[in-house]
Amino acid sequence: MRKRYALITALLALPLAVSACSADATEDADSASGEVSYWLWDANQQPAYQQCATDFTAKNPKITVKISQKGWDDYWSAITTGMVSGTAPDVFTDHLSKYTDFFTKHQVLPLDDLVARDNVSTATFEAGLAELWVGSDGKRYGLPKDWDTVGVFHNKKLTDAAGLTPEQLGTLAWNPTDGGTYEKAIAHLTVDKSGKRGDEAGFDKANIKTYGLWMNSSGSGFGQTEWSMYALSNGWTATDKNPWGTHYNYDSPKFQETIKWWKSLIDKGYMPTLANSTGLDGLTQLAAGKVALATNGDWNTSAVFGNKSANFEPAVAPTPVGPTGKRASVFNGLADSIYAGTKHKEAAWQWVKYLASADCQNVVAEKAVVFPAIPAASEVAAKAFAAKGANVDAFTVHVKDKTTSLPWITAHAADIDAIMKPAMDAVMSGKAEVDSLTKANTDINALFTG
Asked: Which pLDDT tens digit goes with each residue over 230-288?
């Protein structure tokens, strides 16, 4: 999601290793041919990449690209199954929370020899993005495609009616003791079915018409759009080092007091219960007037601002300032990776290389869906968003002010999720106390020592 900040400088020292067991770099690029299968999960991005595929084939007539799109859950289930059965796509959109398991199982192709052979410069990408895709073995497993941060989407008609100005929404602050001005705004934006606001006498928390804040899910162990911005701005760090730490800190008082505060919003009636939010899209609820604020990523900007629902006026504010005196957001970035079992290695590489080029990333930028990995293309995207009426300063401010944090990248990603998801679900549904996360943390750290 983000770009230039202190944590990334440490990554810049990582070497771009060239491994003898990398992809076969002796193949003649001119001989590349065949149909390359390419998968992605975001339907909003499919038209842009279809245009890239058309342009690519025009320049490489021996290679065609077949694009398939699946929803997030189905996507990763199919990828995982395909890795085992040998039916995975040649190229796929990869995620930092997933690729660590893929490369440790040798299911994705290291790209170092190909990068060196074709003189692909990773310096063309936003600072730090390329280094995110260097594994703990020093090899590269993807070329960056975009970055993202998190903001607070809101329905301006609801915030205006509540007397909250854009300036006020842009300067909110939170703390784990009383929630600060952020919680006060959430309370004021919550309205029960009799018209009472959450900060008024007689408010009925059991009968809500409009929630102040949406909860996407419990967030498992990442909480990118759920709780990460609060925990990080409270001074919490997920691991002992990043990337490739070997000790998690879900037992930290800073983390647990953050989650306790976040859960308290449910108890007060300001945020829906886990059961009442499961299966519902928060941004759809936002447009329908069922909620006033919804934390989410910049990849949803085009969809939110393109929603023409009655009584909905989209806007977005930055995440609240925390006890550290700064706001926070995870700086995530996607990349394109090649399945190790591909039968079209050279053609797949040519497509990945094109996806990472300015030619493709400018096409993506002009569609105003995401911020591409190449800085100049990100500027094109910002202008394209503005042309659609979307002010994206709430997302870019994190990069400008260096208030971003790297996603925590470690081994055992799937196992950690298997522990943290039920643990966080239990806490947020009221079935377990926040201190139960200490046991989950112990189980996670045992993965690194067992």
From this structure: 999 999 999 999 999 999 999 999 999 999 999 999 999 999 999 999 989 999 999 99
Mean pLDDT of the 394-398 span: 94
Using alpha carbons only, give the angle 206, 210, 216 rounded to the nearest 5 degrees: 90
Per-residue CA distances from 187 to 167, 196, 201, 241 (Å): 18, 11, 12, 37
What are the tokens at 334? Answer: 């996607």
pLDDT at site 208: 98
* Domain CATH number, residue 429: 3.40.190.10
Reported pTM = 0.86
| Token reading at 30 | 């001119």
Residue 236 placed within a domain? yes
Q: Is the domain of 375 the same as that of 320?
A: no
CA angle 381, 147, 170 (to 5 degrees): 75
Distances (CA, A) of 37 to 107, 197, 344: 16, 52, 9
301 lies in which domain range? Answer: 150-327+412-449
**Same domain, residue pair 93 and 224:** no
Q: Is residue 1 part of a domain?
A: no
Q: Are residue 288 and residue 417 in the same domain, yes or no?
A: yes
Residues 19 and 141 in one domain: yes
pLDDT at residue 397 in the model: 94
Residue 183 phi, psi (nearest 5): -65, -35
Beta bridge partners of 316: 153
What does the pLDDT read at residue 31? 65
Residue 179: name the closest of 270, 273, 294, 276 by CA. Answer: 270
Same domain (yes/no): 339, 384: yes
What pLDDT does residue 97 have? 83
